[in-house]
Amino acid sequence: MMAGIALPFIAFSSIFDIYAAAIRESFFGGAPIPPETEAFQRWIVALFGPTVASWGVLMAYVVRAGTRTNDPSYWHALLLSVLAWAPADIAISLIHDFWIHVIVDLVAIIIIAIPVFIILVKKRC
């Protein structure tokens, strides 16, 4: 959730330059791009931030509900959401040789899925 809140600020900061360089390399062979293209890249990343934040809120609710009710369906829903997102996101990133996204995706999967698996194994669900 915090990453989503930060994305609009990061998109318009110098931190974004590392990401923009990776985009240029993957999609433009490292060639310079028009300023309008970079402005669009920054805008689309900033716009994605609130989406990430909203999913963070939903995941926090699912974790809280799963913890309070002891109902494994919440944990299953969380794992299913990762399965709906991660393989396609990673595949699209690999098709475009965009390794920054693959790495970010793998970190997110580890942060989300491993604790859920541990909880489910402890509950034997």
Description:
With 125 residues, the protein is mostly helical. The protein has five helices and no strands. The longest helix has 35 residues, at 35-69. The two termini are 27 Å apart.
List keywords for this structure.
125 residues, mainly alpha, 5 helices, 86% helix, elongated
Distance between the termini: 27 Å
Determine Rg (CA atoms, Å). 17 Å
Categorize the overall geometry. elongated
Helix content: over 70%
Q: The biggest beta sheet, please?
A: none
How much of the polypeptide forms β-strand, as a percent range? Answer: under 5%
Based on helices, strands and strand pairing, what is the structural class? mainly alpha
Q: Which H/E pattern describes the elements? A: HHHHH
Number of helices: 5
Total E-strand runs: 0
Tell me, rounded to a whole number, the average pLDDT: 91
- Residue runs with pLDDT of under 50 for 5 or more positions: none
